[in-house]
TrEMBL record:
Protein name, as recorded: Carbohydrate ABC transporter permease
Organism: Streptomyces hyderabadensis
Pfam families with a match to the protein in the record: BPD_transp_1
Annotated region described as Disordered, given as residue ranges: 19-39
Transmembrane spans: 43-65, 103-128, 140-163, 175-195, 216-241, 274-295
Membrane topology: Multi-pass membrane protein
CDD domains tied to this protein: TM_PBP2
Keyword presence, Transmembrane helix: yes
The keyword Transmembrane appears for this protein: yes
Length: 312
């Protein structure tokens, strides 16, 4: 027993005296390298954040400058061009609002009418193309898609001649119909894609319950299509709010001018009044800002083809 214990003791001693493997001996260096890696990653992440911050500042600076200048008098504008001044000239907003109020109301009415027409036509067309089989469906839908390749400037003169022959110049209708016609193409494509993703089982269950096409459209398609309807509405409002050339071409009465054309005339009438001018620009940008703030989740959900809050 003593000899066996001596052998075991000798083996343990040799094992303790055996040199460590290379991986274990270099463990300190490997640990140092692993500790250094996050440092390099942190530098890269910091550089990305710095670049994104610079891009955001460059993108937002014109709006900040516009907002800052809207509170200045002409003297403050000339003396302190790049920095805020005190006191704030709040009267600029009152002056600007009295000047652009008619244009503001006209733009809102045109936008609401264009949204109603675009949503009504595109939702019906999208439902029919997605859920009904009929002769020529693919050809007709392909022709609608091909309209996306036609530049708006190509239809400008024919549209003007048509509106003139119909006697619609200098009317609210001449502002509404072209926006519906131009917006309904993309809206139909978006609505058709969205409705096609609704599970067929829901439509089968509705048919078993005795629902026809109009009932399915009213009670099933429209409630589920709220995200894409929000997307279409926001795109239509942006188109109406930013359109400058068409209202300038077909409208000569001051009370029917939209906000972009009204601001252009406001600039001509107040070429040296920089505070009210920039206050008018700020007021004109508020509706789009508020709409996107409250409809952003529907806009993103509609673009992604899902329902807000469901993660789908």
């Amino acid at each position: 027993m003593s000899e066996r214990s001596d052998v075991l003791t000798a083996r343990r001693t040799r094992a303790q005296l055996r040199p460590l493997p290379t991986e274990v001996r270099s463990g300190g260096k490997a640990a140092d390298r692993s500790r250094r890696r996050p440092r390099g990653g942190g530098i890269g992440q910091g550089a990305v954040i710095l670049v994104l911050t610079a891009i955001a500042v460059v993108a937002l600076f014109p709006y900040l400058f516009m907002f800052m200048t809207s509170f200045k008098t002409n003297r403050q504008f000339n003396d302190s061009y790049w920095i805020p001044t005190w006191p704030l000239e709040l009267e600029n907003y009152s002056t600007a609002w009295h000047q652009i109020q008619p244009y503001f109301i006209t733009s809102i009415l045109v936008a609401l009418a264009a949204i109603a027409g675009t949503v009504a036509l595109s939702s019906l067309a999208g439902f029919l193309f997605a859920r009904y089989e009929f002769v020529g469906r693919g050809v007709l839908y392909g022709m609608i898609v091909m309209l996306m390749m036609v530049p708006p400037v190509a239809s400008l003169i024919p549209m003007f001649v048509l509106m003139r022959d119909l006697g619609l110049l200098n009317t609210m209708t001449v502002l509404i119909l072209p926006h519906i016609a131009s917006s309904v193409v993309l809206a139909t494509i978006l609505m058709r894609t969205f409705v096609a993703q609704i599970p067929q089982e829901l439509f089968d269950a509705a048919r078993i319950d005795g629902a026809g096409g109009p009932r399915m459209f009213r009670s099933l398609v429209l409630p589920l299509s709220m995200p894409i309807i929000g997307t279409v509405s926001l795109l239509t409002v942006i188109g109406v709010w930013n359109d400058f050339f068409w209202p300038l071409l077909v409208i000569t009465e001051d009370k029917l001018r939209t906000i972009p054309v009204g601001l252009a005339f406001f600039k001509g009438q107040n070429a040296t009044e920089w505070g009210p001018l920039f206050a008018g620009y700020t007021l004109a940008s508020l509706p789009l800002l508020l709409l996107f703030t409250f409809l952003s989740k529907y806009f993103l959900a509609g673009v992604q083809g899902g329902l807000p809050g469901t993660g789908k």
